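Q: Given only this backbone (153 positions), what sequence would you predict?
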C-alpha cells in the first residue's frame, strides 16, 4: 500500500505544480496585456498629437487622424501577440511525465491488488465447498502414521 499512497502523493504534487506553472504564465500574460493597454493609451495620447499635427500638414485632417489611429492599433496588436505567445507546456512537460509514470504504477498496483483479491475469493470459495480439503494432507499423514504403528505391533 505504500507504493499506492506514494503514487497518489506524486500525482497530487504534480497536478499542483502544473497548476502553479499555468497560473504563473497567466499572471505574466495578464501583466503583458495591462502593459499593452497602458502602452496603447500613452501612445495614443503622446504620439497621436505629434503625428496628427505632422500628417495634417501633408494630407487632410481626417486622413491624418486615420493614419495615426491605424498605427496605434498596430502597436497594441504587437503587445497582444507577445502575450499570446506565452505558454506553460514547456515548463509543465517534465512534471506531467512524472505524473503519468506515477499513474501507470498506481494502475499496476491496483491490478495486482485486484488479482490478489480474486485469488483470495477463490480460496475462500474452495474452502466453503470442501472445508476438510485444507486439513486433509495433515490428517492423512496422521492416519498413515497410526496405521504403520499399528502394523508394526
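A: Predicted residues:
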Amino acid at each position: 500500500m505504500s507504493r499506492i499512497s506514494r503514487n497518489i502523493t506524486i500525482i497530487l504534487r504534480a497536478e499542483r505544480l502544473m497548476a502553479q506553472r499555468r497560473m504563473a504564465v497567466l499572471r505574466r500574460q495578464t501583466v503583458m496585456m495591462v502593459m499593452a493597454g497602458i502602452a496603447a493609451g500613452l501612445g495614443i495620447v503622446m504620439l497621436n498629437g505629434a503625428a496628427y499635427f505632422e500628417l495634417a500638414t501633408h494630407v487632410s485632417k481626417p486622413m491624418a487622424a486615420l493614419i495615426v489611429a491605424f498605427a496605434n492599433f498596430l502597436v497594441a496588436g504587437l503587445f497582444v501577440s507577445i502575450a499570446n505567445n506565452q505558454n506553460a507546456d514547456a515548463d509543465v512537460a517534465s512534471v506531467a511525465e512524472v505524473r503519468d509514470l506515477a499513474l501507470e504504477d498506481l494502475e499496476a498496483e491496483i491490478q495486482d491488488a485486484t488479482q490478489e483479491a480474486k485469488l483470495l475469493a477463490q480460496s475462500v470459495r474452495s474452502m466453503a465447498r470442501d472445508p476438510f480439503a485444507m486439513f486433509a494432507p495433515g490428517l492423512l499423514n496422521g492416519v498413515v502414521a497410526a496405521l504403520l504403528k499399528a502394523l508394526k505391533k
